[in-house]
Design a protein that fits this description.
The protein is built from 12 helices and 17 strands. By secondary structure, the protein is of the alpha+beta class. The radius of gyration is 23 Å and the shape is globular.
């Protein structure tokens, strides 16, 4: 399908994405953590681009960028995020922002389109200071006390300090005006290999997984590694290792077909080569699109901890740190994407759940929401080798624009 004034301009989309790729470039990816100088530069870049779509740009007090339209008629909100994981990929986030910008450039001046696309770049989706702080702020789920308490991953800098460092201190935080938008649409790379392995071009997201995070602590007895007999040891590190294996053996009987679980961090205290660790800690995560499945697995996890404590020689405690609810994507948004994919991607689409969290799950708490995926080469993401073929990027942009058109003209 050739580029025309009424359709996505593939060359312009690729040029925008490569311009963002140059901001904080690292190898073939980017290093653009939240509130870093490159991240601040990317916010300025977007704010400077929004007038091309007839949008008024604002950067708010938590680092969200919002482009709003004076055009009469319904408004569709679209976007994603601009910061990256550390030393990671160039498309995770920016793809959705650029697609939203392109949809606004194409559709907002079109007299045959009733209404307008408004563009958002949500701050800190990647969690350098918290979880979805930008989009949660927009829906009214972040307090000033939450911002006061937020620190970076190393605990070295407060969010207040970071906000001030890029010149946003004292600015108000923008909030959603209920009823202004007919819904929210987000595009993203798949971050998996389902589309690529199936020769497909578009993923139509049906749901976004819930993510529950736990701290599991094992308490034993610190002692000398050379003089303490094996029979009397209370080795917290060994207890942790056995518990990890037990989870992998027990969970398959209780989990759903797409449940995943991960031990993302292990710490031994004191962590010295000649000392039996008296304390061990693991951060553990469960993901599923069905909250009932996660609840069953948590019940199993707590029962296993109680059994391990009773058996000894170490005690085990489980603390839930985070509960992210699953989110269903709106059926009419899924239909619009599927119809657009039939027109622009030869129908090579698949309805599928998202195994990763996205801002769309936050926006879904206040408005109908949808998501579109494009293929990830090798299923790689959160690494600087993350990539998507230019052809697939352009196809995704065309589908996204047409889905926006259908949503505004239904």
């Amino acid at each position: 399908m050739p580029d025309t004034p009424s359709r996505a301009n593939g060359e312009r989309v690729l040029a925008d994405l490569n311009a963002l790729r140059a901001i904080g470039a690292y190898k073939t990816g980017v290093h653009r953590p939240t509130f870093s100088e490159p991240h601040a530069h990317s916010l300025e870049w977007l704010a400077g681009k929004l007038p091309e779509a007839g949008l008024t740009a604002a950067v708010d007090g938590i680092g969200n960028v919002l482009g709003t339209s004076p055009k009469e008629g319904p408004k569709l909100l679209a976007g994603s995020h601009l910061e990256s994981q550390n030393y990671a990929g160039w498309l995770d986030g920016p793809l959705g922002v650029v697609y939203a910008l392109e949809a606004a450039r194409v559709l907002n001046p079109d007299p045959d389109v009733n209404g307008a696309v408004e563009v958002a770049a949500w701050c800190d989706e990647e969690g350098h200071f918290g979880h979805f702080l930008g989009s949660r702020s927009y829906v009214g789920a972040v307090t000033e006390a939450d911002i006061d308490a937020a620190r970076d991953r190393n605990g070295e800098r407060t969010m207040r300090e970071a906000i001030a460092a890029i010149g946003l201190a004292g600015r108000p935080r923008l909030r959603a005006v209920r009823g202004r938008h007919i819904g929210y649409l987000e595009a993203h790379i798949e971050q998996g290999d389902t589309l690529e392995s199936g020769g497909l071009k578009i993923g139509i997201v049906t749901s976004i997984v819930g993510i529950w995070q736990y701290r599991i602590v094992f308490t034993g007895e610190q002692n000398h590694a050379g003089t303490t007999r094996m029979a009397i040891r209370k080795d917290a590190g060994l207890a942790l290792a056995r518990f990890c294996v037990a989870i992998d053996e027990a969970f398959p009987a209780t989990c759903g077909p797409r449940t995943v679980w991960t031990t993302g961090r292990i710490a031994l205290d004191p962590g010295a080569p000649s000392i039996i660790p008296g304390r061990a800690e693991m951060l553990f995560q469960i993901r599923d699109a069905d909250a009932a499945v996660i609840e069953r697995l948590e019940e199993k996890l707590r029962a296993m901890a109680a059994e391990a404590s009773a058996r000894g020689p170490c005690s085990v405690t489980v603390e839930r740190l985070r509960t992210g609810a699953p989110a269903m994507m709106d059926a009419s948004f899924q239909d619009a994407i599927e119809t657009a994919a039939a027109d622009c991607a030869n129908g090579k689409s698949l309805r599928m759940p998202s195994g990763a969290g996205h801002d769309a799950q936050i926006l879904a708490t206040i408005m109908p929401s949808g998501m579109l995926f494009v293929p990830s080469i090798g299923g790689i993401s959160h690494h600087w080798t993350e990539n998507t073929a230019d052809e697939d990027i352009v196809t995704g942009a065309r589908v996204f624009v047409e889905a926006c058109r259908k949503l505004l003209t239904r």
